[in-house]
Amino acid sequence: MMMKRLNEDDEALIDEYVTTKSFWEYLKKKYSKSSPFTANENLTVIQTFDFSQYDTVTQACDKLKQFRRKLGAANPDMKNAYTDQALFLVLTRSLPQEFVSTIDGIDVQVSMTVDEKLQHLEAKELRIKSTNEAAHASLRTHIKRRASHYRENSSSSNGNEINPGKC
């Protein structure tokens, strides 16, 4: 089972260890080291978070939590540096302009939990997507009508006449 998850470098070292337990101890020691570079990298990713790389509010929130876990693993002193509320602020700061009114409404609701606030953002996201899909459908219908109107006009003439008054 462990073999399926190992990278090539670690896989090559298996033969150097007599027991699975000794190899496991080596892996624990190797990967539990705190790295200042890794901690700094994850801290920077949180601070400069860009929502546009993700498809949904939920994906973005999950990714922020993942960066927080990695930051805490790389530097235990930073484990509690970003509360859920702090990550929510990072997320809202990175959202597109369409979310501004929803964020303003959420900001005045001091009694709401982070999960409740996220639900409001997710609902807003669904409304935005629904509106965009309706707009795209309307545009496609308009283009089809225009194309059929153009075909009717061009088929009624025998190709020798140009009617500049019709599009």
Q: Could you explain the architecture of this structure?
A:
The structure is a single chain. Helices cover 65% and strands 0% of the residues. It has 167 residues and is an all-alpha fold. It has a domain at 1-32. Helix 3 (36-47) packs antiparallel against helix 4 (57-74) and helix 4 packs across helix 5 (84-94). The radius of gyration is 28 Å and the shape is flat.
- Summed over residues and divided by their number, the pLDDT gives a mean of 83
| Class computed from helices, strands and strand pairing | mainly alpha
Helix content: 55-70%
The proportion of residues in beta strands is: under 5%
Described by strand count, sense and barrel closure, the largest sheet is:
none
Number-wise, the strands total: 0
How much is the radius of gyration in Å?
A: 28 Å
Q: Segments where pLDDT lies below 50 for 5+ residues?
A: none
Note the gap between the termini.
Answer: 67 Å
SSE sequence, one letter per element? HHHHHHH
Number of helices: 7
User: Shape from CA axes?
Assistant: flat
Region (Disordered): 145-167
Biased composition (Low complexity): 153-167
Write the layout of secondary structure elements.
Elements: H1 8-12, H2 20-31, H3 36-47, H4 57-74, H5 84-94, H6 100-107, H7 114-156
Helix pairs in contact: 3-4, 4-5
Region (Disordered): 145-167
Biased composition (Low complexity): 153-167
Pfam families: Retrotran_gag_2 (PF14223)
Key terms:
mainly alpha; 167 residues; 7 helices
State the gist of this model.
With 167 residues, the protein is mostly helical. The chain is built from seven helices and no strands. 65% of the residues lie in helices and 0% in strands.
